[in-house]
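Complex 355.
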Amino acid sequence: MSRQTQAIIHADAILSNFKLLAELAPTSRSMAVVKADAYGHGAVNVSRILQHVSPRFAVAIIEEAIALREAGITAPIVVLEGAHQAKECAMAASHGCILVMHNQAQLEWMLACPEDRRPTIWLKADSGMHRLGFVLNTLPSIVKQYASLITQDTVLVTHLACADDTSNDFTQKQLSAFLQIATQLALPVSIANSPATIEWPQSRGDWNRLGIAVYGGQPNTANVALAPTMTLRSSIIALRDVPKGESVGYGQNWVAQKDSRIATVGIGYADGYPRHCPNGTPVAVNGERVGLAGRVSMDMITIDVTHISNVNIGDRVELWGENVPINEVAEAAGSIDYELLTRVSARVPRIVKYR
Ligand SMILES: *Cc1c(COP(=O)(O)O)cnc(C)c1O
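Predicted structure with pyridoxal-5'-phosphate bound:
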């Protein structure tokens, strides 16, 4: 391996974040959400790191669950989008997966599946997000009609649209409407994602589904000491002096206001560094913060290192991590940490550090 562009995955941070969140909600059980390759960290990496503390894992689609099985992960895996085709019902059962049923077609596929090859199902309720799930007031009749599919392991699931915004009372509306039906049906519940687990204690149900917070992300208003779990780093591959008035990069997007020193770094949008990051977006060189200078290219970025001394080819550059909070980069790019993490591309090796 020659190029020094890597995503360092901090195993201790992932583990301590999960434990901290689980302790926040001692009356719930917590499962780690490892969909989208564990938010870019490597689903197998993260599932191995958490296998002794997360009694279930959650993924979006069954292919993600099967990949974990093939890597030797044994905990039951909740497939949040359920089956996309009838054959996935039997596949789910043989791989120890739980399918979240969100529409009637999926329930019919289950009925058509031989009884001894049916997986555990969870039921998804639409409490106001209007993306997936059964309309709340239809649930009693659905549960009655498909009673043969419901077991003691069946959980009633819903998802909150605004849990990261403590000033929005829509969350309370969703909770009240959902809990009324859940009480009536006497089923265990799973409501909270990360921001809900942190900010809305009433949403902590039988199972909390922890995604972004395991990876260090939390609502702006929250005050939980979560650690960054990924350091995206690269190195300086070229250095040059750029005289006042000269431009750098595509479209002459940055112009030197004075004689400047520009470093070229071996990472670009093909690695998942956001192309929309403007001039001045923070990066750290040898731990010191400097700014982007010029448009992000496919394989490289250029940064202004005029103000720091002793910069050399080969020096380490942090794109996000301990010195540059990922949220600052996300904000500069008009995006969110979820997107930045999941877009780190396959070209970037994930290196798990156990400290
Ligand atoms: C992705 C997802 C989660 C995890 O959300 P975070 O905000 O990352 O904690 C929980 N529930 C469902 C249904 C999801 O799709």
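The first strand starts at residue 6 and ends at 10.
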